[in-house]
Amino acid sequence: QATPGQGFSGGDPCVPAGRLHCEGEHLSGRKTLPSCSLLAMGSEGGGDGVPQRSFFIRNIPNAITFVTVFCGFLLMASACVPGISPLVCLFATFLGLCADVADGQAARALRVKSEFGATFDQLADLSCFGIGPAIFFVRQRAVSLGPDAALTSSMLTLLAGYGYMACSVFRIARELIVHSGVRPLYFVGIPTNLACIPTVLLSVTAPGSVLLPFIVMMLSGMMV
Known about the structure:
This protein has helices at 17-23, 35-44, 55-58, 60-77, 86-110, 115-145, 151-177, 192-205, 212-223; strands at residues 26-27, 30-31. By secondary structure, it is an all-alpha fold. The chain has a two-stranded antiparallel sheet. A hairpin with a 2-residue loop joins strand 1 (26-27) and strand 2 (30-31). The model is unreliable at 1-47 (pLDDT under 50).
């Protein structure tokens, strides 16, 4: 049988000393820091002992992701701004691919990975590697075929462009919802950042090719 002061704190035989210590009560005449406060301090730094980063450091990967978003915007803007050269769009695609790799590397190096950053990266991929290349492909085909293009050729171009955009949206949504933003261990189709490379490259070098719409539709099916 424990006596006051032996196994209990403050002479109270009903409350264990360990409990009082956890709850932040007086122990041996000193005010102890609650263990829950220690846990909270650890969780503020990421839950694994990582110190809390400043606002600037935490958003460095997001700033790089904004470069990917801008590259996608440039591809879309090329459809309505005649002065944007196809070579500029090709360079923007390459820059977007580099930024897509760099933002993940920066997040891991700075240890500031977050669910928001992962979702933002997926949506940036959709703009730069999904919607942007689809609009750019349609623009290049329309310029190459000219206003006197046959109806069947124009419809085929629109079908291929829409199919590419729809499949890329479907793939990104599946990664965000079904796979929770994590790439599965099994093959679920080629990623959008891989499908966009031949799509944009062929749209620049051979926009009038008869095979181009079929290649784009094949890439679209491979994404899903």
